[in-house]
Amino acid sequence: MKRFNPRRVKIHRSYAVDEAARVLGSHKNTVRNWLGDGLEPIDGRRPVLIRGTELKAYVNARRRRNRSPCGPGQIYCVRCRSPKHPMQASAEYVPITPTSGNLRACCPDCLGRIFRRVSLPRLAAATGNLTITFPDAQQRIVESVDPCLNCDLERAPDAQPGK
Question: What is the reported pTM?
Fold first, then answer.
């Protein structure tokens, strides 16, 4: 399902069906279907005109209707298209920035990976009764004990060809 951006609609303007479709990046038939679904035109005459305020409100209402907010302990599965409680009631917190990261788990229905972006201060509220594990930080190359095998610094310089 395509997401239409309601901020592209000017509220002080009237739109014909093809203009509304062009502004939202959709097809004319999509806007015509919306007119049958409850989007109100200005009057019953042709060409069909739609107020910008009505169009913006209709697109916003469609976006709100299609949302599925995740509750505490739930992570949204894109394959299943619904919030799910992770398998084994556990998830892994993978930091992205110092203040936020992803909860990573496995969907119990489709066995796919599921992710939820969460800020560190709100981690306790978002996890609910999940068991959260924090992975150990990966070792950087500079901190490694063994030298790099691709290092050319210790080799003697090769003789220049032709001399």
Answer: 0.56
